[in-house]
Amino acid sequence: MSASARVRADACPGVFATHDAADGPLARVRLPGGAITADRFRALADAADDLGDGALHLTSRGNVQLRGVTRPGLATRLSAAGLLPSPSHERVRNILASPLSDVAQELAAALDKALCADPELAELPGRFLFALDGGQGDVAGEGADVCWRDGAVLLAGEDTGLRVGPEHAVDALISIARAFLGARGAAWRVSELPDTEPLLGDVPGERTRPEIFATKPGLPIGPIGDAVAVAPVFGRLTSAQARAIARAGDAVVTPWRSILVLGPLEADTGLITDPDEPSLGISACIGRPGCAKSLADVRADASRVGKAPRAHFAGCERRCGKPAHEHVDVLATEDGYLVDGAFVPVGELARTLAEKDSAESKGQQ
């Protein structure tokens, strides 16, 4: 959508300004870099049980949502847990960081602190997204407005040719965010600006020819050194599963609706730990009955699909939660689905997606 087409204010939900969904108020809790301590994970689990629907819903930006928050007290609880360090900035603390990069994680914490310390940046749109990629190419492909990728500065996913060392990365990203505020007009995202060069302004650094960097989104599911990467089905983490993760230690929530658990996780949590699990490649919006705009119970339909390529099931044309990278678009209609634009009855979804998966596999051979 172009900036000139904006007809309403940015209404991205937070904790103080929730979204009125069909299943009750929805609150989004930002986790800059995805990092969360065991104590804070327990606090979220308790809040989900006491105030919401008993689950934590992971987002495609590495954040957590609580649904059905019909009882008061959420902001007080989360503030006490340290999850709301700046009420004025809580909706703009949108920061991705490579889960396996110590440098990216450290920079994410420093960027969050600098962001919250700047009163002007509280006016950023709730959709503005920062990313810090340690060079893995994982979060660099997630559609950030401004990304530091192991020295390279990217705007709207494209390399600018500006090179900045890690010691200046936070200052560079903060400077660019301030410049965006001055240039944005009605724009919500950097990609909506006609010219992004002015955003770089006087940001210090070396200039070189822009490159095209390879991206590799996702986190391998299963053991990773002393840690383990797990995924809840469709990103829905029960409060019991959240407490199991907290007992294991601190964690990192990723933008791929998975979690890097930084300690030994107990068995039988119901979390996906098998990298060959077919459902790993399938994501879905909340669908019916949680969303009044949805035309189908997309998660129920998606759960009946076996082998499939990376696909996203959406209940309406907003396509909430869709991945930033390439995927099969599965859009609900009144009487079936459009799979990459072609109508498919509900009963034919499994076969159609299996055929697409087979064709994709052959194409990669």
Automatic annotation (TrEMBL):
Domain Nitrite/Sulfite reductase ferredoxin-like positions: 27-70
Keywords: 4Fe-4S, Heme, Iron, Iron-sulfur, Metal-binding, Oxidoreductase
Domain of life: Bacteria
Hydrolase found in the keyword field: no
The keyword 4Fe-4S belongs to this UniProt entry's keyword annotation: yes
GO MF entries: 4 iron, 4 sulfur cluster binding; oxidoreductase activity
Family matches, as Gene3D superfamilies: 3.90.480.20
PANTHER family: BLR3264 PROTEIN, FERREDOXIN--NITRITE REDUCTASE, CHLOROPLASTIC
Protein known as: Precorrin-3B synthase
Organism in which the protein naturally occurs: Amycolatopsis thailandensis
